[in-house]
Design brief:
alpha/beta, TIM Barrel, 23% helix, globular
């Protein structure tokens, strides 16, 4: 039976444990180095703690080694993989295929989305190489995912929530082009989130200092069942730089949404166990987002398909949820006409667009008369009827404390008397077994059977801070032996330790054989610099696989001439109603300026793609 995994991000140990408590079936986290989020490293000790905790629920830990590596780094990364295996990690997410040109530990390999996994052929190539899971490109439609699943047997992972890269992951060189900081090396400067200007080729300005490449956030919450039917097995939340409250809220939301689908199906089950409970109602709108889009999930190159503008031109960050309009402004007091079911709280953060269309904001100090906010800072005069947004709900944030999510595993106990010993047997909801026994040297019969039963029930039920909750307790009392309280408590503790050790002793073991040659996907034979070859092992790997256009990565040997530094499903022609197919206008040439650098725009209308072209 196919398992469905909710995969949550973890910046650190705190976020990882919070994600598991909120219901994640797996977490992905950066190791000490070589992750695509250079500012989110974690020690081996912390990763081991995360693994030990996750495995109590049958949850997995994936570690990101998803950057391209130079020759010295490659050797260190390979050594690190064995340390990660010893720490209990279940899977490695990798980009650099140079890692396959040598020995790796026997755990799952997942193909990072940085490899641009967007076709049947590429997926089959990775499957043949021995990858257990393929992280599909965000640009795919559900129909395209379905076609990939029909032709392949590898598990498919897809991003269902969070920030969207405007460029194809692993094929974006915009940051490297302008700043020298490479996204493929974990140092993306996020230049898609800075102001840019758009011009026609004759110099006519269409947009000045707008966030033309800043994508809205991905939200597939309405497409869960459709994605399961298409073949997605791992539902991935983006956000390895997000804070712990974001992780709690978003993970809890998708846990609830996925469980709602799974309860009506017999063909799929969740991949871990344990029931999560929250003291808050999850709400995606209350965590950081740039506005939501389902991106290209139902996309089509059909000219009759109404393609939305995937970007938010006005702001690159979290604007917030509309809460009402301004009635009046007197000194430090702002009075609002709030929308239905909206109330203000001390500590809320509010945003609004000023007369020039620039987003401004402030923090509420004190709420007066329910709809009047007192603030500390001085503000310019704001027009009455201006719309206000809340991007921090202080009361909601208070609910997201460390005790707001609790995850427990259902546990059955059987206490049994034998001639010379008593034993306690445990079985959790996943069928994992544990137990302990106490040898009787001085056998005494209890004076009161009722008191013996009551004592056993009370003491054995004390599961305290463990991850378990008792669902059934059987007492098989044939001799009614008197057992001291200290022995009962010790039996319970030892039995739980035994159960936990049984779970932690389970280890992934997947033997890898990279000696066979697998031909590269046909459409990738001429990748050139886009193969991202940064070390000699990667060079050897690609030569063996049949790469025809051999070239080192953009970051290692900057190519000359017209260079495609970013390719996207986001289209500025379409956003400005200048698409020849959808708006039936003559094709126009455009360029975009980011800082003091100019990029020409190329348009592939057949495949509905836009590219930024650097001229060297």
């Amino acid at each position: 039976m196919r398992t469905i995994e909710l995969l949550a991000p973890a910046k650190n140990k705190e976020c990882a444990i919070a994600a598991i408590d909120a219901g994640a079936d797996a977490v992905y986290i950066g190791g000490p180095s070589f992750g695509a989020r250079v500012n989110a490293p974690n020690t081996l000790e912390d990763i081991k703690e995360v693994c030990d905790y996750a495995h109590l629920f049958g949850a997995k830990v994936h570690v990101t080694l998803n950057t391209i590596l130079d020759d010295d780094e490659l050797k260190k990364a390979r050594e690190l993989t064995f340390s990660l295996y010893e720490a209990g990690v279940d899977a490695l997410i990798i980009q650099d295929l140079g890692l396959l040109n040598g020995k790796l530990p026997p755990l799952e390999l997942h193909a990072s989305t940085q490899q641009d996994n967007a076709t049947v052929e590429k997926t089959l190539f990775l499957q043949e190489l021995g990858f257990s899971q393929v992280v599909l490109a965000r640009e795919l439609s559900i129909e395209e995912i379905k076609r990939i699943k029909q032709k392949s047997s590898v598990k498919l992972e897809w991003f269902i929530h969070g920030a969207l890269c405007v460029g194809v992951s692993g094929r974006c060189y915009l940051s490297a082009s302008i700043t020298g900081r490479s996204a493929n090396r974990g140092e993306c400067a996020q230049l898609c989130r800075v102001p840019s200007s758009l011009y026609l080729s004759d110099g006519t300005c269409l947009a000045k200092d707008k966030y033309l490449l800043s994508m809205k956030d991905n939200n597939q919450s309405d497409n869960i069942e459709e994605l399961i039917d298409a073949g997605v097995s791992s539902f991935k939340i983006e956000g390895r730089l997000k804070d712990v409250n974001y992780v709690r809220n978003v993970t809890a939301y998708y846990r609830k949404a996925i469980d709602e689908v799974l309860k009506n199906r017999s063909d799929v089950v969740r991949s871990s166990y344990g029931k999560s409970r929250t003291t808050f109602e999850p709400d995606l709108n209350k965590s950081f987002n740039r506005g939501f889009t389902e991106y290209n999930a139902h996309g089509s190159t059909d000219p009759h398909f109404k393609k939305e503008n995937y970007a938010n031109f006005d702001a690159p960050g979290f604007v917030g949820v509309k809460i009402g309009r301004l009635v009046s402004q007197k000194g430090h007091d702002l009075t609002f006409k709030l929308f239905k079911n909206v109330s203000l709280h001390n500590g809320d953060s509010l945003n609004y667009y000023n007369d020039e269309g620039i987003l401004e904001g402030f923090r509420v100090s004190t709420v007066k008369n329910d709809n009047t906010a007192e603030i500390f800072q001085s503000l310019q005069k704001i027009k009455p009827d201006t719309v206000f947004y809340r991007n921090k709900d202080a009361e909601f944030e208070k609910l997201l404390n460390e005790k707001c999510c609790l995850r427990k595993v259902s546990l059955k106990m059987e206490y049994k008397e034998h001639e010379d010993f008593v034993e306690l047997r445990l079985e959790d909801e996943a069928g994992n077994l544990g137990g302990a026994r106490f040898n009787l040297t001085d056998k005494q019969t209890a004076n009161s059977i009722e008191k013996l039963r009551a004592n056993l029930i009370e003491k054995l039920s004390r599961l305290g801070d463990s991850v378990y909750e008792l669902s059934d307790l059987k007492l098989n009392l044939t001799e009614n032996y008197f057992i001291p309280v200290s022995v009962i408590n010790s039996l319970r503790r030892d039995a739980i330790d035994s159960l936990n050790q049984f779970k932690l002793s389970k280890k992934v073991y997947i033997e890898h054989d990279f000696s066979k040659t697998v031909p590269i996907a046909p459409h990738e034979e001429n990748l050139g610099y886009r193969a991202n070859i940064y070390n000699n092992d990667a060079l050897l790997f690609y030569k063996k696989s049949g790469l025809k256009e051999i070239a080192f990565a953009y970051e290692k040997n900057r190519p000359s001439g017209r260079v495609n530094v970013l390719e996207s499903k986001h289209c500025l022609r379409n956003a400005f109603k200048l698409c020849p197919l959808r708006h039936r206008v003559k094709p126009v040439d455009m360029y975009i300026e980011i800082g003091n650098k100019r990029f020409n725009l190329d348009f592939d209308c057949k495949n509905c793609r836009m590219s930024l072209i650097e001229n060297n």
